[in-house]
């Protein structure tokens, strides 16, 4: 069995309310093992046979629509990928842990789209941005709440959905994995 984390986008924000108990139950009904939630924002740890994560992502999107009438997606990563989301983030250990984020992307962003997004954002704020494997690394420098580098801005420029977690949360999730 492989240990995974499903990072759900938009859970318990913007009106998408869902208890973690209900989310755990949905995973258990799908016969995932050792299901555990971490923080009430849609982080679900589970064990399952090793397989490509995009198939799991599709299953979870369907599950959320079918069981909870929620349109969202889940970025699914195994333990090594979660570790890399912290270790390979070039801003880890440089910026403040609660300002340094990894945004998990639904697919690999194209270099050209990333370069255009960075250029479009250049005059909008002090954030530092780097591209990773199916991820984007961001140091929000002055905080996420005041940043003009929003999820909507990123998703429009890259043409794919994303869900973000800060380094502090990822370290906590990794410790539980």
TrEMBL record:
Protein name: DUF1697 domain-containing protein
Gene source species: Novosphingobium barchaimii LL02
Source organism phylogeny: Bacteria, Pseudomonadati, Pseudomonadota, Alphaproteobacteria, Sphingomonadales
């Amino acid at each position: 069995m492989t240990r995974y984390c499903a990072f759900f986008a938009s859970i318990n924000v913007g009106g998408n309310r869902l208890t973690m108990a209900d989310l755990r139950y949905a995973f258990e009904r799908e016969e995932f093992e050792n299901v555990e939630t971490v923080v009430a924002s849609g982080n679900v740890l589970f064990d399952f046979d090793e397989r490509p994560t995009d198939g799991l992502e599709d299953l979870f999107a369907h599950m959320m629509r079918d069981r909870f009438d929620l349109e969202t997606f889940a970025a699914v990563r195994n333990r090594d990928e979660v570790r890399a989301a912290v270790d390979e983030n070039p801003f880890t250990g440089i910026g403040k842990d609660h300002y340094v984020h990894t945004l998990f992307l639904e697919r690999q962003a194209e270099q050209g789209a990333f370069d255009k997004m960075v250029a479009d954002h250049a005059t909008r704020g002090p954030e530092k941005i780097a591209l990773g494997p199916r991820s984007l690394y961001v140091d929000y420098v002055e905080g996420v709440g005041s940043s003009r580098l929003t999820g909507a801005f990123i998703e429009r420029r890259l043409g794919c959905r994303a869900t973000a977690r800060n380094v502090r949360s990822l370290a906590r999730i990794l410790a539980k994995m």
